[in-house]
User: What shape does this take?
Amino acid sequence: MIEKIKRISKEILPEIIRIRRHLHQHPELSFKEFNTSLFIQAELTKLNIPFTTGHVNTGIIGTIEGNNPNSKTILLRADIDALPIEEKNEVAYCSSNKGVMHACGHDAHTASLIGAATILNQLKNEFSGTIKLLFQPAEEQLPGGAKLLIDEGALDKINPNFCLAQHVFPELPAGKVGFKKGTYMASADELHVTVHGKGGHAALPHKLIDPILITAQLITNLQQIISRNNNPLTPSVLSFGFLEAKGATNVIPNSVKLKGTFRTFDEKWRLSAHNKMKKMASSIAESMGGSCDFEIKKGYPYLINDDRFTEHAIDAAKEYLGEENVVDLDLRMTSEDFSYLSHRFPSCFYRLGTNNKNINSNLHTPTFNIDESALEIGAGLFCFIAIKELSK
Assistant: This one.
């Protein structure tokens, strides 16, 4: 089976690259992946793979049935949306949609899944069970396409025995993959804060309530939520990346806007931290004569890889690639809406190495790109893990 999958993967690599480059050149933002969805549907139609559409508007679920299709079901997932980033790569397939870019590799995920579908469709008489192909919208924007798919009941109808997803990883060279059993990625919440004061002339601070000064105190003091309340064995991150104070050198504004993110791996601590941040922010603002609106948009939960199924996936990867090409991963403070699936069904989320000495930009940057030779593994390993799991 390994030799068959590797042979087909190599044969179809040019086609997978074509698909990836088309998607890369025509990125679409979360919840707006209409042309992306039509393109995927056309590719599945060419392969004679049946599918349903309209899941969270642009999502697609394809079906490949092997022998005894009711015996077991495995779901393979790829995300299809892009990011609001202006691409700076000088490549023929550079984004043609100004200000939008596949800077997180979802084009590679989708192309790999279409490649895997091509292989699995050719081999469907050689395995038992059913493979579901989920092309999921809106991974990059709350509340997340995965949550909405679950809310609409699309995944409950499938009720997969196992869910599998992969993500490009520029920290690994092409040819290698990485896994971590158990807790892997953090929860992610958005913080939206408005500090209210009383603006006026900067030379007359005694007549003002300075929201900039209040905000500075908030940013500094809220870090105590992490350093003095969190169990040090449970990593947490509180970061602010947006600050807007529309004043001038001699003008203090009436209000300041602040946005940030809070991430952790413990749901009980997560909720406790929410309450502590709100209480501290309100107290600081009021003690300085102002007030504070502190909104927390609860985002994705932490991602957990099922120990048993991930061990199976690791064994399959070692068999397919060789033990030296399968590495252990550390905890990551980044987040992923596949986490919703991981809390609902036994799941495994692994990393696909994509860098080389010339291609090594980080995710979410204007120069992110991949070594496209990795797509051969992206398609082939997806298949082999699924087929091995169906046989257990």
User: Anything to note?
Assistant: Residues 2-25 form the longest helix (24 residues). The chain has a mean pLDDT of 97. Residues 189-297 form a domain with the Alpha-Beta Plaits fold (CATH 3.30.70.360).
